[in-house]
Each structure stands twice: as structure tokens, then as C-alpha cells.
Request: fold
Amino acid sequence: MAPFAAVVVAAGKGLRAGGCVPKQFALWRGTPLVRHSVERLLDAGAAPLVVAIPDDWRAEAEAALAGLGPVVLVPGGATRQASVRAALEWLDRRGGIERVLIHDAARPDLPGEVIAALVAALDGAPGAIPVLPVVDSVVRGDGGLRQAAESRDGLYRVQTPQAFRFAPILAAHRGWRDAAEAGDDATVGDAAGLAIALVSGDERLRKVTFAEDFDSADRDSHDDRTTAMMTRTGAGFDVHRLVEGEDLWLCGVKIDHPRGLSGHSDADVAIHALVDALLGAIAAGDIGDHFPPSDPQWKGAASDRFLAHAAALVRARGFAVGNVDVTIICEAPKIGPHKAAMRERLAAILDIAVDQVSVKATTTERLGLTGRGEGIAAQAIATVFGA
Ligand code: CTP
Ligand code: MG
Reply:
């Protein structure tokens, strides 16, 4: 088979399927939906393979695709078309791509024969799509009433993957001027004048759209998981070193103190512990996964951005923050006078009420690293509820 790249779009919200995660990450036949077609494409030799994902579901996407061959994750867009475009632009920057298959993650059962037929069809046309004949009668309806019968001759149902010569489909996407979204990539190609060959599709390629499209076994396990996830907790812990010449930030409040905490961001140890607690509650990794200290954009960053992001992730997964409880561990400064301001600040960042936020403090009786004043430690716990 000629070499080909692949794009799998998995950046939708899966609203029609319901559930507490976008459908592409829900289990289908016991495995995350998106994993199925990615695996089939890799097996068929797709390289590179780019998956467009919702930006704030990266941890889920990585977990869903763990252990497969090389896969590139790119943030998708607000529409399917924008997600395809983002992946095509990544491939263009990578360079050297001649053929590309563009596929919906929502079509998990992707037979290898369809992939082979599509790639082969690109020898004779700049585009190729899998189609199935329309078997039912077709009528036009209006206001709930049957109007004229339509001939189904020459009508087909269109599936994905859709295969294209890379340069012309990229140009077609870049040149799309219609304000409305195209239904599929063949529509984009057609608008740019590309000839699109028809190859035989496969019933197995049906799109998973509604909750009932998941097998009942998966739905049961999904429901069990959902119920079990209705209340979840996470814990976080962090330490930063106290040094001369740094500002001291705790719980998003700047405190007048001769020394401050050192670290890559503003080193707000209390917020860092709380971010880890929230991420822990939704099993979305830890603060280092989301804001790597090696990334210069987080140098000196205000930690309230990290906390707002963690809260957004919690909400995106269908949860609401129940309560958070932060304990700051240090001999100095005295935390008591700042507690009220700290609770208010955390509540504002998390967009919850002040009575859902607790800030406490303790010393370690002058023992250990906090006792000697070498650093400040903080621990936090967070509860989230299925919304
Ligand atoms: N898709 C995407 N980016 C979007 C919207 C959709 O990558 N902004 C992807 C979906 O993840 C899916 C495919 O396009 O794999 C087909 O879309 P659809 O079945 O409509 O999925 P969703 O848009 O996620 O579902 P819904 O319309 O029910 O919200
Ligand atoms: Mg959609």
C-alpha cells in the first residue's frame, strides 16, 4: 500500500450520546471508542497519525490511546471542520505528506479492506470516499406530510475515512469560504473542484451517535462508573523552599513577609496542593502534567491560572466542586490574619461560595523542614460531585 498519513477527529462534545465524558472516551466494546479506529489505522500503516482532541481532555486522550504506536495529539476546534483543519495544518508543518485519510473517531469499527481500497483509489483520483447504497425508499416530506417520492438511484450514504491527496485537500480547507460548516471533507474537496471517487463502504463503519449506539454491556459498566463517580475526592501535597528576595503568595494572596517561596511559577504552595487535589478527584494527572515546569510560559506565572484551569477541567467532566480544604504548614508567617482573604480569593477563582472553602494552618512544633523555616508545605483535599 502507498504510504499515507491519517487524521482522526475526536474533538467533539458527544452531546447526543449524553454521558459524563465525550463519547470518544467512553467505553465501546470494553475499550475507549477513539482507540478502536486509531489502532486499525496504525495496523494498516498510517504514519504520521494525528488525533484532534478537545484541549482540556488531553489526559483522557493520552490514557485512551496509551500503549499504541506513535500518535500526535493536537487541539481540535469548535467544529468538526476546524478540527480537521488543525490536524491538516500540523501535517503540513511536518511536511512530506502525499496522501491522508480523514476519519471520525465516532466510527470505531474500521475494516482494513476499506482503508486499502481508499488508499488504492487515490492512484486514480485526488479524493475517495466510502459509500453504501440507499436501500430504503426515499421520499420528500414537509410539515410531517409525505410529499413526492424520490428516486434512490445514484444516491449513497457517505462514511469516513475519506481519502485525499494531501496538497489539494489542504488547499480546499484553507480556501473554504462558505460560512456554513461542510458536512464532510468530500464536500470541502468538491467545492474546490476535486474529483471524488466512490469506493465500497461497510455497514460496520456506522457512526456511534446516541447512547443506545453503545452496547448494553458498555452502557451498564458506564452507568456503574457514573454512579460510582457521583462523589469523588482528591488529595494534594506540595512544598516550596523559602528564600530571600521572593514575594510570598499563599492561596492567591500576597503576604508581607521577609522571605518568599521559590519555584518556577509564583510558587503558591497552597494553590499547587489544591490544584493536585482537584486533578486527583477527576483522575486527570497532576499539576506537572498540565503545566510542565520545563515550559518557559509558566515561569513566574500566577498560580490562580492553574487553579482556574483545574476547576474548568472538573466542570468539563460534568462535575461541580463540592468543598475544598487546604492546610498550610509553617512556623511563619502567621496565617490566621489572612484566612478570610484567602478563602475569598480561592472561592472567587473556583467560582464557588466562600463556605465551600476552608483554609487552615498548623506548625510542626519547630520540627522538620517547615519547623526550621526552610520551606512551607501545604496539603489539600477536594470533593467533586457529579453535576
Ligand atoms: N468532532 C471534532 N471536533 C468538533 C466536533 C466534532 O473533532 N468540534 C468529531 C467528533 O469527535 C466525532 C466526529 O467529529 O468523532 C463526528 O462528529 P459527531 O458524531 O457529530 O460527534 P460530536 O460532535 O462529538 O457529537 P454531538 O454532535 O452529538 O455533540
Ligand atoms: Mg457533532
The chain is about 30% helix and 30% strand. The longest strand covers residues 231-244. Residues 5-226 form a domain with the Spore Coat Polysaccharide Biosynthesis Protein SpsA; Chain A fold (CATH 3.90.550.10). The chain has two domains: 5-226, 231-386.
